[in-house]
Amino acid sequence: MENNTSVYSVDTSLEVRSANSRSFIRPGIQENVKLDSVTYGTTPRGIEFLSFNFSDEHGDTVYRSEYPVSLRKPLDQMSDQEKEQYLGSIDTQKRRIGQIVTTFVSKDKYSFVANDFKEFAENIIRILEDRDKNMLVRIKVVYDKRNFTTLPSYWKYPFIEPMTVSKEDSKLRILSIDAMVKKEADLESVPEEVVVEPIVGNPTTVKEDLPF
């Protein structure tokens, strides 16, 4: 009979971490962060996304995911107020993304023609291919309305800058509108069940939390 006295022995090769063991960058002003990748893809529900994927020196991560602004009716059927709101949301998105892009490349490179969200995302990825991939930045991390950590959804206030800017000269500030504390205690960061295979780059996890 086989000796089973050692079946419960344990050595250092045993994997003991759970599948949900990823660590996320905490809310606040965080330093020495890299932009690891920028990816375009679709969620399991068929919703397009553009994801900016950051990590710090400890390997903790944070994502900023963007989605197409919802077009509930054709533009020529919108009232002036509806059209203003729709175009304003797109303008806000372009400016918000522009703050990220122009941190890594010169402002004159953030210029192109795009007919839809896919073309827009592909141009962003193309522009950022020329960035210094070792560049370190300082970012502001907040909780969104679903208690997931991300970058702010506004553009009028700075939320990212190069680490070459000294702390004394930094323009990043925690504002009263920045959520630094979770509204509830039961959510971590990017929801684990929504994992997509982007068309460009490595597999990434994004959230289906449309901001529009």
N-to-C series of helices and strands:
EEEHHEEEEE
Detail the poorly predicted runs: 186-212
The main pleated sheet reads as: 6 strands, antiparallel
Q: Helical percent range?
A: 10-25%
Rg, Cα atoms, Å: 20 Å
Class from secondary-structure proportions: alpha+beta
Number of domains: 1
Q: Report mean pLDDT, rounded to a whole number.
A: 85
Number of strands: 8
Shape: globular
Quote the beta fraction. 15-25%
The CA-CA distance between the termini, in Å, is 67 Å
Number of helices: 2
What would you note in describing this structure?
The protein is of the alpha+beta class and 212 residues long. It has one domain. The protein is built from 2 helices and 8 strands, in the order E-E-E-H-H-E-E-E-E-E. The strands form 2 sheets. Strands 1, 2, 3, 4, 5 and 6 form a 6-stranded antiparallel β-sheet that branches. A hairpin with a 5-residue loop joins strand 1 and strand 2. The longest helix is centred in the middle third of the chain and has 25 residues.
